[in-house]
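Risk register update: the risk of archive-format incompatibility is retired. Evidence:
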Amino acid sequence: MATFGRMEFLDRDRSCGMANYVKHYLTQVLRLCVIAICSAIFGAGIGLVQGEIVARGPDRMYQVTFGEGAAMIGASVAFFLGPILLYALNRKMLFEQFCYIAVSTFLAGCLVGWFCSRAPNGPGWASMFLTPIAAIFFAVIFSREGRSSTAAKPRP
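Archived output:
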């Protein structure tokens, strides 16, 4: 260690190790923020479309208001659910798998909302509880599928 007066400075090897640790930590935090924001954007879109499908009111203003509320709920739920699913699946997810999960969740949420709202005064609002469950279900399915397909490929 090199000294300067009464202060001791770490040698170069230790300071580089600390810099790599900080860089790794900041990269993980940035990745978490990006996944949370992207998930919230997807959740808002899914919630808006699902709210437009479910709302069957006497006027357009009721439908738009319901859709906006559903978009906010979808964004709020997805903001937390996306990073939780990513880290629960050990951060091993390809962009293609993320797209499959998002599209499958969108289709499942819209179909469930449409089926639930078909009856007069039907429980279409209940689809907001089933859509996050569908997201978890599809995340588990596509993460297993990705692990088996990457394990089967020989590395050069």
